[in-house]
Amino acid sequence: MPKPPIHQRLAEAAVALFDENGYDATTVDDIAARAGVSRSTFFRYYRSKEDAIFPDHDALLSRIGARLRASTADTAIVAITDAVRLVLTHYVEDAEVSLRRYQLVRQVPALRDREIASVARYQRLFREFVGEWLGDAPDAGLRAELMAASVVSAHNQVLRGWLRAGGTYDPADPLDHALGYVIATFRHLDQPQEKSEQVVVAAFSRSASPQAVMAAIQQHLESSV
């Protein structure tokens, strides 16, 4: 059988060595040797050993960006949910590495920081797309931030549940369920309601004359201006 691509071999070697020997005790040379390549080859693919733990984020971000750019204003919400599914599918398709990486990230602060930075890149991509979609709409910046944060939070909640369960189930339905809440939020924010006119309710005794009623209403309206 053909060997996996070099970037994948390096990632698998890094995960295995971090798991076996610990993050601090593993060097770039160790990873390169396990993958059967030279040190210089390692640096053609990754800038550091922690980057090897997150091997495909740049490519995945490009795929997400392409999916978002292919949409129109009418299909923006569909594009966003499709993009979220792309991210989850990426983890599920390489479940063994994803599960081992999850354990490592929980133990190594440097890897947690790297993961946080990666999540921020995804959220920024969604925020920029939603901001362009909303254009000059009221509170566009705030709404774009809220939408992007809700998308990322929904995905991460489902992904963490799947990882904690050891990848023992298909997370597609839980993701669709979570995205249902996100879509509802999007629909609510898509067309912000204009501020409604204030409704005044007044009560009068049966004996009040029409003139007295009208005078009281007129006085209230004038005092509210």
UniProtKB/TrEMBL annotation:
<dbReference type="InterPro" id="IPR001647">
    <property type="entry name" value="HTH_TetR"/>
</dbReference>
<dbReference type="Pfam" id="PF00440">
    <property type="entry name" value="TetR_N"/>
</dbReference>
<protein>
    <submittedName>
        <fullName>TetR family transcriptional regulator</fullName>
    </submittedName>
</protein>
<dbReference type="InterPro" id="IPR041347">
    <property type="entry name" value="MftR_C"/>
</dbReference>
<dbReference type="Pfam" id="PF17754">
    <property type="entry name" value="TetR_C_14"/>
</dbReference>
<feature type="DNA-binding region" description="H-T-H motif">
    <location>
        <begin position="27"/>
        <end position="46"/>
    </location>
</feature>
<dbReference type="InterPro" id="IPR050109">
    <property type="entry name" value="HTH-type_TetR-like_transc_reg"/>
</dbReference>
<dbReference type="InterPro" id="IPR009057">
    <property type="entry name" value="Homeodomain-like_sf"/>
</dbReference>
<feature type="domain" description="HTH tetR-type">
    <location>
        <begin position="4"/>
        <end position="64"/>
    </location>
</feature>
<keyword id="KW-0238">DNA-binding</keyword>
